[in-house]
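Before the break, one more example. Copy the sequence into your notebook; we will annotate it together after we see the structure.
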Amino acid sequence: MASNDIAAALERVHAVLTRRPETGLHDDASATAQWRGGLGVEAWHANGTRVSTDMPRELGGSGEYVTPGWFFRAGVASCATTSIAMAAATAGIELSSLEVKASSRSDTRGVLGMADAAGERVYAGPLGLVLDVRIAAAGVDAARLQALVDGALSHSPIPCAVAHPTALSINVEISA
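Here is what the structure looks like once it is written out:
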């Protein structure tokens, strides 16, 4: 879709949400994951899209598929990229390139429920997340592109969920 088509679509949605803000609140598409044996998992979307995950061999997996953590980083990077592209289209900026890399550092001891030398449980999640954004648009100065990125990421759903953690509720159903 061309940048002007994206901008027009976003303007239409903005107009609807201005008139009827309650239509903006909706349930997001759920993701369902099912264990496939070993450490293999298959997750799917209601539209039929399926993805598989596994753990590295050193943790008992086959190493055949990427880890769930990689999908997390891919989700953050994809969401950030989409938000920046939407902001550029809305601002009338024709991007010539855009790439977002999400990287993190983790301590495997956390996944295993281990404690550190002080006896404190090691955190299982990433210890930090870095987004490296490479962006270019002919005739647009660096300050404007920096402001575009900053503004887009301030309301990009997944980066916002990471920056301001979302409450997690857990419901467990035990099968016989």
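Helices lie at 3-19, 68-91, 108-111, 142-153, 157-163. The chain has a mean pLDDT of 95. Try to locate both features in your own notes.
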